[in-house]
Structure formats: structure tokens, C-alpha cells
Amino acid sequence: MKSSTLKVLALLLVLGMVAAACSKKPDEGGGKEGGTITIGQDKANNHGSEDVSGNDEFKVEIDDFYFEPTVLKGTAGQKVKLELDNEGSALHNFSLPEQNLDQEQDLISDAIARGAHAVQLYSEDNQGGVGCVQCHGPTLQGSLIPNTQTPDDPYDVQPTPNLTTVCGGPFTGHPLIYGLDDIYTTIEQGRGLMPSWSIRFAGALGDQQINDIVNYIVSIQDKDEVKFSENVCTNPEAVTKAIDQFLDGDPTKKPNPTTNIQF
To answer: Does domain 114-253 have CATH number 1.10.760?
Structure first.
């Protein structure tokens, strides 16, 4: 996922303000940086705190499974403009309910809604349709499609992946997926019979359109099949577990998720 920036204006700091990562894990490190931290009733990966007293603007880095710094401290009534720079691929939420600040969640919800339309077929009523269902089936649970490499053999069909379990990566039969970046790469550059979709690889979709589709795919994961402990899209521990179990703990053995690199 390419970097995106969200600017949040005029936040009122009341004793403290928290930016908590979307991924929550068991408390491993108390309040020490590098472990996890408990904020209210939530737990978040801890990437330090920063005193922004006296500042009128501040930049927060958002990456996969954390915000850095995780905690911002200021003075009561202080106004600060925050710039949220998303450098990661994971979905994030930034909210201050008491101040009705939920822009990031609204952006994600809007992206998921657009993605839900994008995966359907193009029509007069659905002009944003890309047609993922044509190959992956009406519920995106996989299908059989003709092998375009053997057009003279009508009986040669190939299975397509079940996209409702793709975030399980190798745990659910997707051996080339070890995180969100692999899903983006596959859509952007194609694989096997699947063509490239990114305009940067001779496809038809921009980054935002691909981002919407990925957000939607993540939102429809089969929770019975893709347990959080094995969800490589939202849980960094699942990524580590997959590398340990399927790659002997060596991330350099991770396969390339695409075979169709085009320039």
C-alpha cells in the first residue's frame, strides 16, 4: 500500500491523547517501548510516547500494526494539528469519540463500500465494477475458469483462489501470501492466468481502486477459517508464526507472490 496522509485539525488535548494501533495483542511488555501498552480498556503495540506541549502541529507515523508515537501527551485545552502519515498496508482506525473525531474509520468504511461495488461486474448501475466475481465466483470463494493458455481444450479449467480465506496465507492454502503487501502485489502485477490490474503494470486500476478492493477483501474474511492468530493481514504475530512454520523461520525464503511482472 502506498503512503497516504490524513490531516486532522484542531484537536483539543485534555491531559493526554492516545493514538492506538488497530491490532491488539496480549500485554507482553507493560509500558516499555517495544512491547504492548494498555490504554483504557484496549491494548496496542507500544512505540513510545511524545510530549507535544507547546506544539501547534505534530506528525504521527502509521505503519503496520502500530502508531509512532503511540501516546501523545499535552496540556488541557491545547490545540494541535495532527498529520497522520500511513506508511503501512494494514487497516487503521484513529478516533477521539469525545471530540467526534472518527475520520479514519469513515474513510475505511467508505473504501470497503467502494470495494464491495468494485468486485462486482460492471453495469449501468455499477459503473465502478471491475468484475472480480467473474473469476473468483459470486461470493469470491473461488471458482473454475477456462485455461486461456490452452484455448483449444474446453475441458482444461483452472481453480481460482478463495478470497474469503486469503488472509490466512499459508495456513488456509494460500502459500504465496504472507501479508497485505503480497495481496497488493498480486492484484497489481497479476499471477498465472490473472492479469496485472495496476496502471503501473499495464493494467486499468489506480492505487485507490486497488486499495478499496483490498480493504473489502480483508473485511469479508471467513472468521471460522481465518482465525485472528493466523490472520497475516491484521496480526503481526501470525506473520511471524507463518514464517516460522512454513519457511523454517527464514523470511528470505518467502516466495514472490507474482509471476507476471510487467513493465
So the answer is: yes
